[in-house]
Amino acid sequence: MGAKPPTVATFFDRNRSTPASYQVNFEVQDEVASNLVLEAGYMGNVSHHLTAGDFTINQVPPQFMGPGNSQLLRPFPQFSDVSESAGG
Question: How far is CA 44 from each of CA 16, 20, 26, 40, 61, rounded to the nearest angstrom?
Answer without folding.
Answer: 26, 14, 9, 14, 40
